[in-house]
Amino acid sequence: MSALSKLPKNPQDWARIAQQHSVADSSIHDLADLNSGSQVETKQFLLLRAVWKGRRALEFRNDCKDHDWISRDVLKKATSYLEGTFAMVQYYQRLSIQPRQKPSDEEIDLSSPKVAFSPRVTRSQAARRYQGSTSRPETPSRPPKEDMSIDEHFGNLDLDSDTSSLNSDPLGSLSYHSPLSGEVGKQCQSIEDEQIGAWTLYRKPFVVKASATKVYEARVDGLLRVKDRTCAIVEVKPFIRYGSEKTLDRIRMQETAQMAAWIAQDPPVLKNPNTKFRRLLVSQDHGEVYLIIATFDYQYVEYICALGTGSRGKGSTHSFLEMREYGPFEVKSPEQMEQLGIILLGASIQGGL
How far is CA 291 from CA 4, 64, 211, 257, 273, in A? Predict the structure, then answer.
């Protein structure tokens, strides 16, 4: 990890950088005065009120135990599944033959930008747009993905659009499920191990709104979902995040926008005022996988959802989205992939963190 990030690592860093950019007392829901462009800019990132902390892959195990992100019993089940011959193959075969509705056009649309900010339109801006509406702008052609540079990959973030390893623990046994056959197999649509969350390549859009006005939309590269509930999101990049400071910060800013939009669209239910919420983002950068654990409280939910006074918090009332990045897990390392497999299967069984 040679590249060093310039993004804030704690609230004090955020306050200093936010003061430099004159956004310390601003809100993400007030974007009228911000310049739009082709990427998530520093001001827009700062208004998402996020801080980033990088951690090594091997540190995930102890942190997972300390914070009880995935229960010990679930990790035992996950390890047992992965130790069984063809266990995961059997699971996905069963999952694949379940009848499901035909995916919508929205689910298979691959052309939409990842993040699209929608600055508030003033009356004068609306008038100018109306006057120029008689001419049709030309849509530039998009180069093949494999020929795109790093800048061009991030150019897809159109901001001017309206549109020791875990398995060393003592493990309990998990009963083996033989394949269903005959009439029973045809009739039974739901058995125990089919309740595990399904990973999908659906590029789901998440939207941040201020009242009925869309502030921005973020799309992800995949999901973990149980029924209709999103339990984790997936992001994929064809290059290494630590290749340069610029690349690292751009990836992190985009992932922040995606996580914040997910929270805004699917806010957690408040059961206790002091509850700390967690969400998982799985990010693969070429041959490296990172697990990003987002932690936040309900005050942050109020801010990002523009609820009450939380949306206009100032000074000490600021609440932050903490993004902990664990990695890299190297895809060429059998040991690291075994550990990652247990973690992801555990998250699938548990239904997120």
Answer: 18, 12, 32, 16, 27
For 195, phi then psi, to 5°, come to -85, -10
Instruction: Please tell me the distance from the alpha carbon of residue 325 to that of residue 330, in angstroms, as a whole number.
Output: 14
Q: Which of 326, 329, 336, 289 is nearest to 64 (CA)?
A: 326
Low-confidence ranges of the chain (pLDDT < 50): 33-38, 101-111, 135, 137-140, 155-194, 310-316
Tell me how far apart the alpha carbons of residues 329 and 183 are, in angstroms, rounded to a whole number.
43
pLDDT in tens, 324-337: 999 999 999 999 99
Percent of the chain clearing pLDDT 90 (strictly above): 38
Interaxial angle between packed helices 87-96 and 72-83, expressed in degrees from 0 to 180 and rounded to the nearest 10: 90
Distance CA 282, CA 65 (A): 19
Question: Residue 178 contacts by C-beta under 8 Å, 6 or more apart in sequence?
Answer: none
What's the whole-model pTM score?
0.73
Instruction: Give the strands of the sheet with 222-226, arranged side by side.
Output: 50-55, 321-330, 288-297, 276-285, 229-237, 222-226, 198-200
